[in-house]
Amino acid sequence: MQYTERDAEMFRRTAAAIEAEIGKVIVGQRALIRQTLITLIAGGNALLEGVPGLAKTTLIRTLSEAVDCQFSRIQFTPDLMPADIIGTTIIAEDEQGQKEFRFQRGPIFSNLVLADEINRATPKTQSALLEAMQEHTVSVARTSYKLEEPFFVLATQNPLEMEGTYPLPEAQLDRFFFKINVPFPSPQELVEIAQRTTGTDQAKPQKVINGATLIQLQQMARSVPVATHVLSYAARIISATHPDSPLAPEQVKRYVSYGSSPRGMQALILAGKIAALLDGRTNVAFRDLREMATPTLRHRIILSFEGQAEGVNSESIVNSILESIKEEA
């Protein structure tokens, strides 16, 4: 379906209205809000990482209030079991007194699922999210259940505490569309936070869109055309994350063990399309891909032992790639 400039303006205004409602509760953090919204419109999953008290959970809960979708929150703990997430089969009695097995659905059967402190659960429990995140289905015994669209998993984790936590495996990290780092607020923002949260008035976000409208925005984003030379630029960026690629800069060859999977390419292009629409354009530019590269790739680049020992982070790796890969029309 072909969309017009008028449709693009409607897209931008709707996104701006969602951001404004979130801004009633969340102080500052414009990049965080924008990247979370892009994930939502892309139909992807986001991993928010930041120290305690930075309103990660509040942001996701506020987003669920601005979008008229079913919301559920799962608090991940070491004793959480997969059945606590996807549900379990119970013995139930019908009206005639006959006993039967019945599937009791878990909190994963929602539109927006908050996986709070996801790295506190064991790998066995974390893996219960894999099928839902990628295929939007849940399999129990021999039966598969389709999750209602739209469906998103927005997870949080604390990078400070390592004791009693289980780092997410690469296979699950790759299923997150974005990994979003939550920065500490500025002194001016801290003042605003205190003024908003220590008084008697509490802001209440209003519903902006429903699930059906959100699906329309997702379809509109996917219809944005991408020129061949822009696709080629994205492909060169992804290839340059691999140390054995001739496009890889010296920093990648020295400090990276594994680069991005093709999912990184898919996420980069889709994020670029949404960024273009949010900027009022119906075509993807090089700058859209550069802007989206860090949240798309920071969790898809696996550092080598030498890179970890020298304190190299994935953001600096992405920056070196963007500096080395030239834009070619």
UniProtKB/TrEMBL annotation:
The protein's name in its UniProt record: ATPase associated with various cellular activities AAA_3
One term of GO molecular function: ATP binding
Lineage: Bacteria, Bacillati, Chloroflexota, Chloroflexia, Herpetosiphonales
Record-annotated ChlI/MoxR AAA lid domain positions: 252-320
InterPro entries: ATPase_AAA-3, CbbQ/NirQ/NorQ/GpvN, ChlI/MoxR_AAA_lid, P-loop_NTPase
Family, per entry: Belongs to the MoxR family.
Keyword list, A-Z: ATP-binding, Nucleotide-binding
SUPFAM superfamilies recorded: P-loop containing nucleoside triphosphate hydrolases
